[in-house]
Here is the input.
Amino acid sequence: MNHVTECGLVRDRFYERARRTVSDARRLTRDVLSEWGLYARVEDVQLCVSELATNAIVHAVPPGRGYKVRLAWEAHHQVLRLEVHDSGGWWPLAEEPEWEIGHGLALVEELADSWGVRERKPGHVVWCEFGASRQAVGVPSSASDLMSWSVASM
Here is the structure.
């Protein structure tokens, strides 16, 4: 049986271990979602990228290393996936916070449709997914549509 797989859209960016890069990750998220025509949950996704990037910097990225933010739109299932890749040994948990800090993963759990953690060597990938819909007329729904749409829009 033959299967057709839609590649979707993916954007990666690597950041150094510095708190100032969290705002850069938020800006990347806003710009990419706008470019892809995904307007419905921009604030939720930006807040989640802030929390996951902050967790990576504070808990998981050793000095001298960085972290990667990946945004992926899977057109067929209408799902946006946000991933933050780190290289540390900390294992993220969404436990009930006992102190003023530590609300990040509970917030991600509340805002995202699903989230999780997978191990990588070295480190982890913390991900969350958002069901999304394209609200702009004429916005591409796949990578091949994006290329033809970009050329036609020029």
Observations:
- The CA atoms of residues 9 and 73 lie 5 Å apart.
